[in-house]
């Protein structure tokens, strides 16, 4: 009986490893690709009610994707993306010098019945590093840290030609967590949805003198992408 069991185990083992190797041979160890899509970006604060007058900024992202697939179900990925982020806001105030993001440095404009609309245009080079888990039929989830490098920062006002450079008032770096879900087809096409949760206070300006406290500003960005892996 023991001999029969041993023979059975050896037979199953001899079948398992060729099948496993055959499956893994069809998976490239390293691949690269491109992706692009839309952003819905906003800025929130834990100690200031920004949600009362902020809206999502619609933007674009695009760049390169790299992936090392070391198992049928597991991979490590990295991306280098240009990303348009920031925030839109509406209030009955208008920004004055010194300029500050989100219209926090303000004078009252209540005599004007219409709201002042402004857009904080903060463009970044994003570098997420993620672990990916693949499920059946190409479905995957991903998560990992992300570093963002500020490229430019401007506040633009819709009711005038005023555009203020506020790069000195935004931290040059941001970091946080990137979460995603997507689907990749057998021919390399993929779609994905990601959310970036900023952990760093992106404000480099101290508002304590004007407001009596210093708001902590954090980014939140939804990204919807399509891409192709070569």
UniProtKB/TrEMBL annotation:
Task: Write the protein's name.
Answer: PorT family protein
SUPFAM superfamilies assigned to the protein according to its UniProt record, in alphabetical order: OMPA-like
Q: Where is the Outer membrane protein beta-barrel domain?
A: 23-202
Record InterPro entries: Beta-barrel_OMP_2, OMP/PagP_B-barrel
Would I find Membrane among this entry's keywords?
A: no
Tell me where the signal peptide lies. Answer: 1-23
> Which Pfam families does the entry mention?
OMP_b-brl_2
Which keywords annotate this record?
A: Signal
Look up keyword Signal and say if it applies. yes
